[in-house]
Amino acid sequence: MNAGPTRGQLIRQARPSDAAAMHRVRMSVRENILVSMRLTERDYVVAIEETGRGWVVEEDGTIVAFAVGDTTDGSIWALFVEPGHEGKGYGRQLHDVMIAWLWEQGHDRLWLSTEPDTRAARFYEAAGWRRVGMTSRGEIRFELERRV
User: Fold this and answer.
1) For a surface tag, which of 39, 80, 118, 137 has the fewest beta carbons within 10 Å of its beta carbon?
2) CATH number, position 15
3) Which residues partner with 68 through β-bridges?
4) 76 in Cβ contact with 70 (< 8 Å)
């Protein structure tokens, strides 16, 4: 899905060939840093081809943000914006495209978890997600219910 190019920006569905760039963005973030698991490029391919769908934001041909929704359980697998490209609305655009797709897949409730006291937690609250508790790893669990 293309949200329309703006100043060299394009949102499109992720392809397997995007895995390395998606991983680069994921590893560049300053919050929600991976510590308990190791992701490989294959994990991204599985996430966008077998268990869900992903989208990327390209800015002048370079991937600077991505999101992946998991249709097997209605979760947000990933939503990350490379430092230096935050504050441009890319996260919200990706969020909205991903959420619309997950609703289309028949989910009535979506969920995600993220570290407390982060920009991500504030982002999801501003987007209408509701805190429903904490995970065993100390992350906040959020849920979003479909509005009928």
Assistant:
1) 137
2) 3.40.630.30
3) 54, 78
4) yes
